[in-house]
Structures are given as C-alpha cells and as structure tokens.
C-alpha cells in the first residue's frame, strides 16, 4: 500500500527540562514496526540513538500547537516530537497511525484482546431520566448502561509477557476513546431542560472518569516497572506503592533566563499601575524605596482559610472546570475561579515562612559549624507549617509583574537562643564591629529587627525574588522561585523551582537550599495540602550538608505529612543528626551524642509580622494592589471579587501589549539579574563589605 511507505526526515525531539528541543533524524520502518532516530542523517548507518516499538502505541497530536505530537509506546516510553508545520505533522501522524494499527492487529490475531466494555446513552425521553426523578447516587447509573466483561477462563499466565502488556495498552486505548465519547455525549446535551450538560451528577461523572483513567495509567506504569525489573510473584513484604508524581531532579531544575523553552502563559496576571506611568516603566516610580520599619505596625489580619462554604456552593463550577482540563496541563494557562483563592498574594505567603524569626536569628548564634547547620535545618522544617493558612488548600493570588511586599519582625533579644541553646541578649563588641554605629548615638534597642522584601521579577516564566536580613546579626537570605503548577487528575502539583542562599557574614558561611513540591489533594471534596520531594542544604565552606525528604502519602498505607532527613559531615562521611516526624506536627531530632529533642510545631510561638498601613503603601504593594479582591472575598461576594480580579488582569494585558509595541523592556525595582538567578539590589554582604573598606581607609 502507498500508505505503508517507509518515511524519514528531521523532527525536533524534546529531551528534558534542561536540554529542551533538539533536531534528530527519524526513520519509520514499516516492515519491522519501528520508529528509530539518529543524531543526523549521516549517522543513519550507525546504531540508532533510540527505538520505539509501534505495536500497541498511541499516536496523539498535541493541542499545544499545530506542530507537536507524541508517540506513546506500549512499554511506557514516550517521544514528544515537533514538525516544521501542520502539514508535515499530519503526514507523520497519519503514517505512524497506519503502521501502528497494522502491527497491533497482527499481534491481536495471535493474542485476541479481551472483550471491551460498552457504553451507550439511554433514551433521553426515558421516564427514569434524572431530570424527572432525582434520587441520591442514582442519576449517572440510570443514565448510562455499562456492560462488564469477564476474563476468559482456562488461561493462567504466571509471568506478565510483553504481548500481554500490549493487550493492556490496547484495552486502555479503547477505554480512553470511550471516555472521550462519554464526555462528548454529555457535552452534546442541551443547556436547558430536564437533563442538561451541566447536571451535577453528569459533571461528577466527567471528572471522576478522568481520575479513573489517571489511576489506571498509574497502575499500568507499575506493571511496566515490574516487568522491566523482571519481578516474579508478589512484591516483597513491607513494600509500599507511591503515587506516581512528576519527579524532577533538583539538580536539573529550571534556571532563570531559559524561558524560551517553555510555552507562553495564557492567564496573565494584571497590574493597576497609574495610567500615566504605563509608558514609563523605568522612571522614578520604579526606583527602590527605603521602607522605615518604624512606620510598620503589628499585623492584625488573621485570614484563616478553613471556610468551605464557597467551595461547596460552587461545586458544579469546579466539576465543569475539571472536566475541561487534561492530565499534565500547566495551570498557568488556565483562569481559575476566584472562590478558590486565598486572601493574600504569593509574595506574602513567602513572608509567612519567616514567622519564627527567633529560630532564624539563632542560626548565627551557633557555636560550631555543626550546630549552625542543625539550627538551619530546624528553622527550615518549622517554616512550612505557618506558611499555610489553615487546613484547606487554597491558592494565593498570582503576583503581577512589579508587585512587591514589605514587612518586618521585631524579636526580643532575650527570646533568641545563643551558644549552647541558652537565651541571652549579650553579644561581644566584635560581633557588631563590621557595621556602622548609630550616628545619633541612641541606645541600642533590646530587640532584633528582621526586614523582608519580595518582588515579582518576571512574568514569562513567573519568578519571584525575596530577601530578608537581620543587620544586628550580620545575616541575610536571598532566593528566587519559579512556581510551576500542573493538573494531576484529582490533585494539583506545584513545583517550586529555584534556589536560596543564607549568608552568615560573621562566619563567612553560605548555605544553599531549595524548596519541596506542594500538592493540593482531594480537590473535589475537602482539599488539603501535602509536600513532597527531596531537598538539599549545603555549606561548601564547612563541608556540612543536609538531605531532607518530604514523603507524599503512599498509595497503600503510610502516614500523612511525613518528613525524614539527616545532617552529615561530608569530609568524615558521618551523620551528626537525624530528624523524623511530620512537618506540620511534631519533629524529632536525634543527635550523634544520643540526645533527642522534640519540636511541637503546633505549640511554637508565632511572631506577627509588621506591615505598613494601606494608606502608606505604594500602588504596587500586594495588600493595596489586591485590597478590593480581598475585601470582597471576606464579604463572601464572589462576583464582586471576580470583577476586581478581571479588571487587574485586563490592565496587565494592556500594559504588556504596550511594552511589546514600544519594545520597552521591564525594569525591576529591588532585584537584579545575576547569571541564572536574581539578587537583591543592596544585599547585606555588600553593605558590610563597604563598611569594612571605609573603616580600613579611615584607619
């Protein structure tokens, strides 16, 4: 047949997050049912760099654009490919599908597939229609007739063979097709009448059918892993099967400045900058502002996010939204409903991670490198609990580009642990020697001040920079984070891509660290948050490091919010401290001396941050910028909150369009691009260095 011709040519292949897209020479071998690729056409006579068996594969054009498509092999391997245009993509897709069907049918003749289940719509005029008579948990079942199949008797296969995996893959392909037909049948229903496409039971069916297919794909992947490792029989005793979340190596995390490898977002947050300054993004309005901590007042806002009322009332909207999403979809491309929002910006959420400033300041007071690393791990693990406002998982506002947040904390010196863990306010003069003295000769206050500033420095991708310092203790932390969210079926995953560095200037030490992933689970019922992934903390100067694992709940059994970790001395390869427990409850620290320490996070004192009143804040500061949305959410007026949010989004689009037309680059206010990261414009290490130079010159 003319359609079974062997074709070859160059396509772009997506390799990974770091490498991105690369040109490769592909060959479709119809006789063997193989898709092979080489580095280039000249190396075609060499061994292929990669080969996919097309029998049982699924060829899927992507909805990202008109050029991209994927080849999902029965083995679980996937190629994400991109043609030069839509015509070339159609040519490759059609030839691959024909070859796949031919070889799948050939295998099917030797191994007949199981009889598939059938779905059919009942007559819409039936007297049992859920629109006529509604009973709990009855509507979807009475509306759809589901025929089950039985496994053929007399056949027992002790070991899963490759052709059986092909059968499973084929059945799953049929199920996916039937699930798509199911959704189309529901969406074709009229918008009004006894039975509509927005019927709550049907929306539930759409959402749960997608979750079911996600679960089946997870189980199929487990079978593939078993077969690949040639496991025989059941899993070993004590084995737990974890949810298959996206696993991104922290070492390969996205670095700022490579945004061209990622699709542009559709959901663009908005700005309410004054109209007269829109065309002048680099004028004085973008100059750094020195915030006087004396103008800040103790925060009295206490917006706990434990109210499910709006979520319960808007459940049909959630179901309709979920039915439109695809697994793995980047949620920055989706406009999410207003009622699932927290009453704070993401920038303020980063500030709330600093709600235990006594533990933060105490890091610098450690008497040895080992003690300082252990104190940093203790502070790090206690920061996430207060960062969450209540047990209900809600989403903070997406910061607009140029948005900032300022606050500070005052911590009595007597409440900060010093050497050996005792609380004392005494510090030797040498500890303060590198800082300029108060020119007015005022008495030294009896409290430490920790200042915090955050700014949204990039829109494509969305990157936030934040910085905190305690001048009295010669310490500061600088970080940049890109939040990347994906839809995972009945949960949402957020990867916190980036890096932070803690500077202890008195000791000349730098501690690099990253952040775990976060997951919003059970988004159809009572959504809750869990953390997952492995993070590392390193201090190159001292040779101490910490490895921390945030464990997601296993598929079978296991505890919630579990965290384990250890602190090591790398030169000696010895563990000096182990930690285990729950990151939102009790942590247990076990030291090499045999001593054990328990930290109950629910009983830790929280220091309220200090924030300037709204009337003294600039138009770009988070609370003033989002004040109308926040007030409407507090009043329970979702429509009004949505209206204010939409106005901000539209303003942002207009400003971005104007910058593009005038080719005007965006200028950040407090953070500067530094290689792959972002650094505060006036960090403490520069201030201290300048003070030391000035002191040396005067001597």
From TrEMBL:
InterPro entries, from UniProt? OSBP_sf (IPR037239), Oxysterol-bd (IPR000648), Oxysterol-bd_CS (IPR018494), PH-like_dom_sf (IPR011993), PH_domain (IPR001849)
| Database matches in SMART domains | PH
PROSITE patterns attached to this UniProt entry = OSBP, PH_DOMAIN
Write out the annotated subcellular location: Endomembrane system; Endosome; Golgi apparatus
Any GO CC annotation of this UniProt entry: endosome
What segments bear the compositional bias annotation Polar residues? 117-137, 416-433
Q: What is its main location?
A: membrane
Q: Which CDD domains match?
A: PH_ORP10_ORP11
Identify the keywords attached in UniProt to this record, alphabetized. Answer: Acetylation, Endosome, Golgi apparatus, Lipid transport, Lipid-binding, Membrane, Transport
Q: What GO molecular function annotations does the UniProt record carry, in alphabetical order?
A: sterol binding
Chain positions covered by the region annotation Disordered: 104-137, 416-440, 637-658
Keyword Transport in record = yes
Any one Gene Ontology BP term: lipid transport
Query: What sequence ranges are listed for the domain PH?
Result: 4-101
Question: Can you tell me which family this protein belongs to?
Answer: Belongs to the OSBP family.
Q: What does this protein do?
A: Plays a role in regulating ADIPOQ and FABP4 levels in differentiating adipocytes and is also involved in regulation of adipocyte triglyceride storage. Weakly binds 25-hydroxycholesterol. Interacts with OSBPL9 to function as lipid transfer proteins.
Q: How does it assemble?
A: Heterodimer with OSBPL9.
Q: What is this protein called?
A: Oxysterol-binding protein
Species of origin: Certhia brachydactyla (short-toed tree-creeper)
Q: Which gene encodes it?
A: Osbpl11
């Amino acid at each position: 047949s003319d359609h079974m011709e062997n074709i070859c040519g160059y396509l772009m292949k997506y390799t990974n997050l770091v490498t991105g897209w690369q040109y490769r020479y592909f060959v479709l071998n119809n006789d063997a049912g193989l898709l092979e690729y080489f580095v280039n056409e000249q190396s075609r006579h060499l061994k292929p760099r990669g080969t996919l068996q097309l029998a049982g594969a699924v060829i899927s054009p992507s909805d990202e654009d008109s050029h991209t498509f994927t080849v999902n092999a029965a083995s679980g391997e996937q190629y994400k490919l991109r043609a030069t245009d839509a015509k070339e993509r159609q040519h490759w897709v059609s030839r691959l599908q024909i070859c796949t069907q031919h070889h799948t049918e050939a295998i099917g003749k030797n191994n007949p597939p199981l009889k598939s289940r059938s779905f059919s719509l009942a007559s819409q005029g039936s007297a049992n229609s859920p629109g006529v008579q509604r009973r709990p948990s009855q509507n979807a079942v009475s509306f759809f007739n589901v025929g089950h199949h039985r496994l053929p008797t007399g056949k027992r296969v002790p070991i899963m063979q490759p052709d059986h995996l092909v059968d499973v893959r084929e059945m799953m392909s049929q199920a996916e097709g039937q699930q798509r037909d199911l959704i189309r049948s529901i969406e074709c229903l009229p918008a009004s009448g006894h039975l509509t496409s927005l019927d709550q039971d049907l929306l539930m069916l759409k959402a749960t059918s997608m979750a079911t297919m996600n679960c089946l794909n997870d189980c199929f992947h487990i079978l593939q892993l078993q077969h690949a490792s040639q496991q025989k029989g059941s899993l070993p005793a004590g084995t737990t099967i974890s949810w298959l979340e996206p696993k991104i190596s922290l070492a390969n995390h996205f670095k700022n400045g490579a945004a061209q490898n990622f699709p542009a977002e559709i959901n663009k947050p908005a700005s309410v900058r004054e109209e007269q300054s829109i065309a002048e993004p680099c004028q004085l309005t973008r100059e750094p502002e020195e915030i006087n901590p004396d103008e800040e007042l103790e925060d009295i806002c206490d917006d706990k996010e434990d109210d499910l009322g709006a979520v319960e009332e808007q459940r049909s909207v959630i179901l309709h939204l979920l039915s439109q999403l695809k697994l793995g979809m980047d949620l920055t491309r989706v406009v999410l409903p207003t009622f699932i929002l927290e009453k704070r910006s993401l920038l303020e959420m980063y500030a709330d991670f600093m709600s235990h400033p006594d533990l933060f300041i105490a890091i610098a007071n450690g008497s040895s490198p080992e003690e300082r690393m252990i104190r940093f791990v203790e502070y790090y693990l206690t920061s996430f609990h207060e960062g969450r406002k209540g047990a209900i998982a809600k989403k903070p506002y997406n910061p607009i580009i140029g948005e900032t947040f300022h606050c500070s904390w005052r911590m009595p010196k007597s409440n900060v642990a010093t050497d050996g863990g005792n609380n004392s306010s005494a510090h030797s003069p040498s500890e303060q020697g590198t800082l300029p003295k108060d020119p007015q000769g005022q008495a030294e206050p009896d409290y430490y001040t920790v200042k915090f500033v955050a700014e949204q420095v990039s829109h494509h991708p969305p990157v936030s920079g934040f910085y905190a310092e305690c001048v009295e203790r010669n310490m500061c932390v600088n970080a940049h984070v890109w939040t990347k969210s994906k839809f995972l079926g009945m949960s949402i995953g957020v990867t916190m891509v980036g890096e932070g560095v803690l500077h202890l200037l008195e000791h000349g030490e730098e501690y690099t660290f990253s952040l775990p992933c976060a997951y919003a689970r059970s988004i159809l019922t009572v959504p809750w948050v869990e953390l997952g992934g492995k993070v590392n903390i390193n201090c190159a100067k001292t040779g101490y490091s910490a490895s921390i694992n945030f464990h997601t709940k296993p598929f079978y059994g296991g505890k919630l919010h579990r965290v384990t970790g250890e602190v090591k001395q790398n030169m000696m390869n010895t563990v000096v401290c182990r930690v285990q427990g729950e990151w939102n409850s009790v942590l247990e620290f076990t030291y090499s001396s045999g001593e054990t320490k328990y930290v109950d996070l629910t009983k830790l004192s929280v220091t309220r941050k200090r924030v300037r009143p709204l009337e003294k804040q600039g138009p770009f500061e988070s609370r003033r910028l989002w004040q109308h949305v926040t007030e409407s959410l507090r009043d329970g007026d979702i429509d009004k909150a949505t209206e204010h949010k939409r106005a901000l989004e539209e303003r942002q689009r207009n400003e971005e369009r104007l910058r593009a037309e005038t080719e005007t680059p965006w200028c950040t206010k407090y953070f500067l691009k530094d290689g792959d990261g972002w650094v505060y414009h006036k960090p403490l290490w520069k201030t201290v260095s300048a003070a030391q130079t000035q002191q040396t010159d005067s001597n």
